[in-house]
């Protein structure tokens, strides 16, 4: 009995931030009186829009550089590219890919500079990142208000302020790159993936043959076969019709996810029990997961849940990008550079004496983060559809970092899971706060101020807690500061 | 000789040199463009004294060891609260109103400053990071308060809805320009707001006296070398709280001086970045993360505000579009903070 009590206590104290915000969200939804279908569809739009940016924060945390307030710089790189692509008049996915192609080198260069700068102020990266964000904003203003049109001749009535110098306040992306990524049909993705698999496998086989590594290519052939079967399946008319859309009904997404989960667990059981003949293998976990999947499937028949599931449509490609980034984040830890980053994050002195080039590793971490932030901003802009030239980047770091922290992350540790939970909770609060403010205090503005306060407040509390913990760690790590909030306000 | 020059260069520092040159160039460019130097200088002087106290708030903070105080927003909201309360109370005598506003501001500012100082004692080593976001969240928190305070005066609240305070509140019927107009005189078109300047210099002097007092010296020692001070019997934590409280209280008085000179109170998000501007000004004057003197405040505020006042009309003559002055302010203020950070922290390990 005590054991369970302890476990519950531990769970609660480890996840207190998440629990607090779950309660706040539930209260907010209840108070706002907004229909759940509305909240859910808004929420899934926002996850697609902002998720990538939040996930871009994880690698600097791994490398011990704290929360990367410098992602503003990545967003700026993206916006420079978007302006030129719109100016040149490219449209649709071509325009988007061109943005990507143009923004990435800029972001790499910016990331390199940021990394260099942060190496000059180790231990003060966060404050430096904040100030750097404002500083680069100043340079960005200079570029967009005076250099474009003033120094670089640009003629376009739609983009340039009357008078010929400076870019207009808002640029309408509808008709050029709005929804360009969101509307890529699933079929195209499957085709592209198929060709990537074919080419990479063939290269692998040829490589093994030429080098005479003696590796059997049976496995490669199986992969090719599976790929071909999946690709062939997509030619069946009914499947083709299903795949040629760009949105996936949430219900279908849930079912696909559950089926994949069950198939994976069955494969684990078969692999361990019958192929490897490992009789000690415990079947408890996979069976529990299968039962859970079945229960979840049962839940989809509940009226309220079914309504939401039938109401929400996911932009598949954007979500796949987010999933890919999650996989990238968890994979990079297993590579050599990821291990280096972790060592550097834990102790620069140890890393240095182990022969790791600390400065280089930190610069690489910053480059990766900046490039990812740049892509995240591209995804954000193509989804939101209007590019507010002087406002789109200003609160990027604030909202992304607040989201991550709401998910229970800290300055030293942040995971994919925390990022996703954080985005969900933070944006739920964002959606319902104005309406809740209106219902409770008869003032929608109050709700808006409240959500901004939450964003700033959660960062302040988390930074303070981090500093507090690092100060008292030698004596006691488990005692939690209790008076923090009162002192601040 | 070259050594001497090099030493001088090292003590002035590259950014200060650039900024001073920039200021002088702007000033020299004014007459050919048809602008009057004296009126530009007059403006610079007025803004120098107007912002001075907010910058002065950095001195006790740096001296007591908490570093550059990005969290002066706490004091600023205290001062704003004092000013709005005075209008609500209906005090119409300008001097009395200003005095009352300052007293309320001082009281609220010191209280907040003590709490804030206690918090900063828990987060030694990352005060600046924490204080930036504490400052931001206080402003965001006060946004909600401004919207819900049960004040009734017609000058304060929106005429429609009868709820929530206005974004800008005119001080015409209260203490607006009371210091500026005290003993002021004109030399040609150079307007000297004597009262404002006197008040600024007097406060500087008061802080200077305090720094030379026993408590002030103990505070500086606690900031400069905590371990040594502890050994000689100084309560370091208490001194840090004292410095933070003084800094916050100065900011409260500072925002009232600022508002009376400007003629308006600005609520909501207007003071969000004021901490950054004050930090930038004191750094331009020659301060570092470890040391700040009153001379740094006086020189830095004049250079920073001078550039902004002179650059705006000069640049507008050359480039009529857009607001380059604002852009310059953002670049200079954040650039100098970055420079100061890169000078202090670092190392190869």
Could you give the topology of this structure?
The complex is a heterodimer of chains A (489) and B (349).
Chain A (H helix, E strand, L loop, with lengths): L1 H13 L1 H17 L3 H20 L2 H5 L8 H18 L3 H29 L4 H26 L19 E3 L13 H26 L6 H16 L3 H7 L3 E3 H26 L8 H16 L3 H9 L1 E3 H17 L3 H11 L1 H6 L4 H27 L1 E3 L7 H11 L9 H26 L2 H29 L11 H5 L1
Antiparallel strand pairs in A: 1-4, 2-3
Helix pairs in contact in A: 2-19, 3-13, 3-14, 3-17, 3-18, 3-19, 5-6, 5-7, 5-17, 6-17, 8-9, 11-12, 11-13, 15-17, 18-19, 18-20, 19-20
Chain B lengths: L1 H11 L1 H16 L7 H20 L1 H7 L8 H17 L4 H29 L4 H22 L19 E3 L14 E3 L2 E3 L1 H19 L1 H11 L1 H6 L4 H27 L1 E3 L7 H11 L9 H25 L5 H21 L5
Antiparallel strand pairs in B: 1-4, 2-3
Helix pairs in contact in B: 2-13, 3-8, 3-11, 3-12, 3-13, 4-9, 4-11, 5-6, 5-11, 6-11, 8-9, 9-11, 12-13, 12-14, 13-14
Radius of gyration of chain B: 21 Å
Which CATH first-tier class of chain A would you pick? Mainly Alpha
Distance between the termini of chain B: 36 Å
Number of helical segments with 4 or more residues of chain A: 21
Strand order of the largest sheet of chain B: 1-4
Oligomer: heterodimer
How many strand segments of chain B?
A: 4
Strand residue percentage of chain B: under 5%
Tell me about the biggest sheet of chain A?
2 strands, antiparallel
C-alpha geometry of chain A: globular
Sheet with most strands: strand arrangement of chain A: 1-4
What separation lies between the terminal Cα atoms of chain A? 40 Å
Compose a concise summary of this entry:
Chain A is built from 21 helices and 4 strands. Chain A has helices at 2-14, 16-32, 36-55, 58-62, 71-88, 92-120, 125-150, 186-211, 218-233, 237-243, 250-275, 284-299, 303-311, 316-332, 336-346, 348-353, 358-384, 396-406, 416-441, 444-472, 484-488; strands at 170-172, 247-249, 313-315, 386-388. Chain B has helices at 2-12, 14-29, 37-56, 58-64, 73-89, 94-122, 127-148, 194-212, 214-224, 226-231, 236-262, 274-284, 294-318, 324-344, and strands at residues 168-170, 185-187, 190-192, 264-266.
